[in-house]
Amino acid sequence: QKMLTQQLRELEADGVLNRIIYNQVPPKVEYELTDYGTSLAPALQMLCSWGEQHIEKTISEGEDVLVISGENE
């Protein structure tokens, strides 16, 4: 929880996210992408495509793609 909050605050400070605070009980906070944050979409799409190709390559070589903690211990 602490790390997520820290990352969200850093993204907000960098202008990637807007934080919306609702004055209610219990407290509610929402985040939205700024126009600047939305400009990251092409780069993220390229990373996603690479990841999909990596998974296909890894599966074709017979390697484990996902290992769930505790499953192989």
Question: What does this entry look like structurally?
Answer:
This protein has a two-stranded antiparallel ribbon. The protein starts with a helix and ends in a 13-residue tail after the last helix. The chain is elongated. It has helices at 2-13, 35-38, 41-60, and strands at 17-22, 28-33. It is built from three helices and two strands, in the order αββαα. The longest helix has 20 residues, at 41-60. The model has no long low-confidence stretch (mean pLDDT 88). With 73 residues, the protein is α+β, with helices and mostly antiparallel strands. The protein has a single domain (2-60), classed as Arc Repressor Mutant, subunit A (Orthogonal Bundle). A hairpin with a 5-residue loop joins β1 (17-22) and β2 (28-33).
